[in-house]
């Protein structure tokens, strides 16, 4: 289960899950009641962790599995589903990733302290090992999954170029079949999809030292789950001290470098963030009103079917609001434009004319509270812009 940009922009729950099923009573007498996403490539790790926690507490684990892949769901992912799930079907929702530097969790839920550290890795065939993007030869094609954080890294590393795939499985397959020399992918996906799985001996996996590459894995819980969260954290800490936790997490993840164990009530969801001011106290005008107007039509023609008529998110993530453009996410105009111009539309990435991408970006900026001005936004200007993108609407 992953978010991308904050999304990992990947849908972690299916909104089409029937409310009647979600509201079913929890198993009687179960002390460790958890939900685990079966589509998460690290679901086996989460299952091992909860079973060890239950054993440590001297009870049984009650595990409810759900498919968070979104297959067959036309309505897309609504983060409010997390709150519904955590408040009804189970006490804890395991496997939720948050950016290790400035992540946030959905409204209506809280998070335990991290029990694992995960993130994005660079995968190369053994014999052509590369620990960083910088050491790859000029012109190297690097496979990357659509709408994931590593799409941002190509701007800083002009020696490599993106080869974008719709799924992690296809991204890994491109290296296995020698279509691409390297791949950037979620670590658990590399373990899950490489031949031989965790014992793959023909490939090298190195953690990426790039922005938004390191993620912590937490358990989410609702108002009634505070006691269960506190017990979970206490047991995880006991497993860490005994050395058992590292074995449970391997090879999908590792223990956080500096685990912090807090009382469950002291681990709140990230608060709604106010817009961060830029120099001078005002946001710069990067585009014209005419560009935003043209972008509104271009968005409707090319983007709305996945991201919603009002940018609210459907099959694709929301492109507007405090969860999309949070100051804690530390995204800039250039970061978002790089993803838009390289990954959109999903069926034919990077296929639109440059001026259309610029107009769409102008519309996104306008909808997130940026002012229009008298100077037109350009393709190169949008791609290199370091202006913070922070939502300032209602």
TrEMBL record:
Q: In terms of domain of life, where is this protein from? A: Bacteria
Task: Specify the species.
Answer: Gluconacetobacter liquefaciens
A GO term, aspect molecular function: heme binding
Q: Where is the signal peptide?
A: 1-30
Keywords assigned by UniProt, alphabetized: Heme, Iron, Metal-binding, Signal
Q: Which residues does the UniProt record annotate as the domain Cytochrome c?
A: 290-368
Q: This chain belongs to which protein, by name? A: Amino acid ABC transporter substrate-binding protein (PAAT family)
Q: InterPro entries attached here?
A: Cyt_c-like_dom, Cyt_c-like_dom_sf
């Amino acid at each position: 289960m992953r978010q991308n940009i904050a999304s990992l922009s990947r849908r972690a729950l299916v909104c089409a899950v029937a409310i009647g099923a979600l509201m079913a009573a929890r198993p009687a007498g179960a002390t460790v009641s958890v939900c685990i996403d079966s589509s998460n490539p690290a679901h086996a790790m989460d299952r091992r962790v909860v079973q060890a926690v239950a054993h440590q507490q001297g009870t049984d684990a009650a595990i409810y599995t759900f498919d968070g892949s979104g297959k067959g769901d036309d309505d897309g992912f609504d983060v409010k589903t997390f709150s519904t799930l955590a408040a009804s079907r189970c006490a804890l929702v395991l496997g939720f990733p948050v950016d290790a530097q400035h992540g946030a969790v959905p409204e209506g839920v809280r998070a335990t302290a991290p029990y694992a550290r995960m993130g994005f890795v660079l995968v190369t065939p053994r014999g052509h090992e590369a620990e960083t993007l910088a050491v790859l030869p000029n012109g190297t094609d690097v496979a990357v999954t659509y709408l994931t954080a590593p799409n941002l890294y190509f701007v800083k590393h002009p020696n490599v170029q993106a080869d974008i795939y719709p799924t992690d499985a296809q991204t890994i397959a491109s290296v296995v079949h020698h279509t691409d020399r390297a791949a950037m992918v979620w670590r658990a996906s590399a373990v899950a999809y490489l031949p031989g799985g965790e014992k793959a001996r023909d490939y090298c996996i190195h953690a990426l030292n790039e922005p938004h590459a390191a993620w912590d894995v937490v358990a989410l819980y609702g108002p009634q789950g505070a006691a269960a969260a506190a017990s979970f954290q206490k047991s995880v800490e006991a497993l860490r001290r005994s050395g058992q936790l590292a074995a449970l997490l391997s090879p999908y993840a590792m223990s956080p470098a500096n685990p912090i164990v807090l009382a469950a009530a002291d681990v709140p969801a990230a608060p709604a963030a106010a817009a961060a001011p830029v120099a001078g106290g005002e946001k710069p005008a990067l585009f014209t009103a005419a560009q935003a107007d043209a972008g509104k039509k271009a968005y409707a023609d090319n983007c709305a079917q996945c991201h919603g008529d009002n940018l609210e998110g459907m099959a694709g993530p929301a492109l507007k609001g405090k969860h999309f453009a949070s100051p804690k996410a530390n995204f800039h105009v250039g970061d978002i434009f790089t993803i838009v111009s390289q990954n959109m539309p999903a069926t034919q990435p990077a296929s639109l004319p440059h001026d259309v991408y610029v107009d769409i970006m102008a519309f996104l900026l306008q909808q997130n509270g940026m002012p229009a001005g008298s100077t037109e936004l350009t393709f190169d200007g949008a791609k290199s812009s370091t202006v913070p993108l922070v939502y300032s609407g209602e």
